[in-house]
Amino acid sequence: EPEVTQTPSHQVTQMGQEVILRCVPISNHLYFYWYRQILGQKVEFLVSFYNNEISEKSEIFDDQFSVERPDGSNFTLKIRSTKLEDSAMYFCASSEEGRNTGELFFGEGSRLTVL
Amino acid sequence: AQRVTQPEKLLSVFKGAPVELKCNYSYSGSPELFWYVQYSRQRLQLLLRHISRESIKGFTADLNKGETSFHLKKPFAQEEDSAMYYCAPPGATNKLIFGTGTLLAVQP
Fold first, then answer.
1. Which is higher by pLDDT, A50 or B3?
2. Torsion angle of alpha carbons A14, A20, A7, A68, nearest 10°?
3. Could you read off the pLDDT of B5-32 as tens digits, one per residue?
4. With contact defined as beta carbons under 8 Å apart, do A110 and A7 qualify?
5. Which residues of chain A have a Cβ shorter than 8 Å from any chain B Cβ?
6. CA atoms of A104 and A92, how far apart (whole Å)
7. What is the pLDDT of residues A62-77, one digit of tens each?
8. Domain total of chain B
9. Is there a contact between A31 and B94 if contact means CB atoms under 8 Å apart?
């Protein structure tokens, strides 16, 4: 069964460093998402992406964050200059349909630790 | 803006006992609601959606528009049901908003 895959599973970085988290969505899916979960807190929406552009983003997704689909398979989340409070589990998800009807398929997450 | 409330952070029940995980939403449009589950060391996955009106792993959820609730129920809990459960009303835009989640612990 196709799955969303994420790399790395865990990354440790120094504050101020750039981080790129990678995701390979399910191949026929058209909608892509990033969510994050700070330890002990809820899963928060960051950004959705469709047709090669951001369709929606939350207030968490400030100028330090960017997303890209550099080729036909990868979907990346870049954090330009990491802060301590960026430490979290980042989940990528994809869906075949949008507009409330589609099931989201999640990756296993990338744990980011900022020191 | 859509909002979802899961009032219980932790729900502990004994095996065989009934389970009800509460979810209340506030959304002005016609809601389509989902329950997602995360078992230990596994990814978030869809458990059920209200529009399909199906029962998955013995769980059901009824949309009550009057009470704006979408509680998840199971008549007899099993130990393998222990997991984190998230209610998610997607609202009008192309995203899901998750509740704070309820950790269900089923004791033997």
1. A50
2. 170
3. 899 999 999 999 999 999 998 866 666 7
4. yes
5. 4, 31, 33, 35, 41-45, 48, 50, 55-56, 91, 93, 98-101, 103-109
6. 10
7. 999 999 998 878 999 9
8. 1
9. yes
Token pair listed for A44: 């928060």
A56 lies in which domain range? 5-98+105-114
Q: What count of other Cβ atoms lies within 10 Å of the Cβ of residue B64?
A: 11
> In the predicted model, is pLDDT for residue A3 greater than 90?
yes
Q: Which amino acid is at B57?
A: K
Interchain CB distance below 8 Å, B32 and A100: yes
When the pLDDT of each residue in chain A is averaged and rounded to a whole number, the result is 92
Cβ-defined contact of A45 to B96 (cutoff 8 Å): yes
In terms of pLDDT, which residue wins out, A17 or B48?
Answer: A17
Kindly tell me if the per-residue pLDDT of A99 is higher than 60: no
Q: What is the CATH classification number for the domain harbouring A26?
A: 2.60.40.10
Residue type, B28: S
Question: Tokens 């009824």 correspond to what residue?
Answer: B62
Domain count, chain A: 1
Residue corresponding to tokens 């330090």: A64
Host domain of residue B87: 3-107
Q: What does the CA dihedral A111, A42, B65, B67 come to, rounded to 10 degrees?
A: 160
Say which CATH number the domain at B25 has. Answer: 2.60.40.10
